[in-house]
């Protein structure tokens, strides 16, 4: 039987699966056995992988029409797992620290930054980021805050993914997935302001190394959603393995994910990013959620069906 295999991280710690309870969700009008959880969604989360498993799995696709769609995801050319991650950091700046910076594009326009409160007067922060994330969460930071905090060494203790994003010099992503691959190092796929391009962060391969051994610095690569191509024709080591995953992200409504109710979950750790949990953006208010996301949203084709992976990602973020 084709199914979605899931592992409850609580069970991994306790080595006991008897406390898990199977749940049932409706996916596009069809019944799907979905996440089971040990005592509450607020405390126990999932590392989910797409694979062929036995019928006794926590995840079971019950309807044949869904089975056929999920079978496409079980092809060996697809990534083995993708995990939503939350990117957080601890800033050493606690006393008031203000700064003014010039706009990159507009002449005679400056913005005021408060590095302790992690606020900025630029449109990106005022209209979007200030409503989506709290202090200490990377998704709160516009490019001006990223640069200014980096100058003050605010990210020195953060993990490699966070430092790679910061060193790229752009605004932080809203959503991030760590993608595990069959024979290449894990990569980080991020969603920012653009709905036409994604960013992929991956280790560079040194001379003589295989994809699975890539130990070079983490670099950023751009992926065109509509064009299905790498920016400047250059992809990361193991690009052929992550391409099937990236192609199916065309069916994901990223703005809907940003408005989802999973954003209110606090991070489990106050040190770096949390693997295996959804990004911890608070729920935007009704006044700001739609209007603030609209300027950066890609027009959606009415009635365009979402890919099987798109529906799966939507399910994981519920």
From TrEMBL:
Keywords, alphabetical: Metal-binding, Zinc, Zinc-finger
One annotated GO molecular function: zinc ion binding
SWIM-type domain sequence ranges: 111-153
InterPro entries: Znf_SWIM (IPR007527)
Region (Disordered): 289-310
Annotated PROSITE patterns: ZF_SWIM
Official protein name in the record: SWIM zinc finger
